[in-house]
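Sharing a chain and its predicted structure for anyone who wants a worked example. Both blocks are below, sequence first, tokens second.
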Amino acid sequence: METVLNGVRVLELGQIITAPLAGMMLADLGADVIKIENPDGGDPFRAFRGGAYSPHFTAYNRNKRSMTLNLRTAEGRQLALRLIEQADVLLENFRPDVLPRLGLDTATIERANPRLIHASITGFGGDGPYVERPAFDSVGVALSGMGSLFFDKNHADMRGPTIVDNVSGMYCCYGILGALIERARSGKGRRVEVNMLEAAIAFIPDPFANWHQLGLKQGPYSRTESSQSFVFACADDKLVAIHLSSQPKFWEGLLRAIELPQWADDPRYKTRPDRMTHYLVLREELAQVFRTRARAEWMARLADADVPFAPVNAISEVASDPQVEHLRTFYAIHHPQHGEQKSIHRPVRIDQRRGPTQRAAPTYGEHTAEVLAQLGIAATEIARLKALGVV
């Protein structure tokens, strides 16, 4: 399958997940993504668990090339502008004042390449009262209101995966793709801007709609009450999740599976609004029921009754799940220095196929000489630049 972005060159100046995720998505679609790293250690997540090739780094950087470049030097900035002249996309997630301080302000970049798509991911946008603040995933979770849907003030703690970082990268990727399509028609470059705060808000539209339209305050149980979602520990201490949604047949199927048909006439549970009102009571009663049998038996009963359910897989169990194995979601790719790397296919198929993964995540500065040679820079000049700490 011909890759979607074959021939598109992307310069990635970002770090800390947001830009690397967007860059990886573009790389998976066939773009040539050059990850530009500073000569003083590069992406900080390289050394997250020691060394310079951590699992955290490899998770977000497959299919890219890495070069080092010191943007604080005049020669480094000139090289950056030469790269920008030949690029289709510049992707970065610095605070708004960083590139201008380095002499790479918007006007300079646009003069170098009027067709460039300049994509920027920030914490809070390009201006405003918070513009100078640092921002990370937990900041976006809290400020956007998303955290209020997770946190319990009586047991306040941070849990779960990175959400806002990843969502911001996804929104940025589709903004870049839209800008590339528009540029094909107009020939004009565009500035694509995404901030983590708005990305997080946009990712949870339903609680805001409930508040603005009906004045309903949403909390940690609001969605689960409405969707009738549960997770239960079984007799063997394994967990199973159930999502009944709004269709009556799933509630009826659950009653068959647990052999309690009389609950259909219980005034607390007779209708879906009744079950929403008494969600916590229903959850506790169901928890007692599920404690009576092992998970495998419950799964068989739920499947027979056509109830939406799933075992709560540990991360170590996901790859061996029968459906995951069938989909071939995970794959292995070889790196000449670090050996076999296990990774996750992009979850998008085009014409029933995925694009090929060509390379594992790069080692630090692995492709510096290769990229500079493509700019027409001789080997002796590359050696001089390395000696000066420019690359």
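Comments welcome. The chain is about 40% helix and 15% strand.
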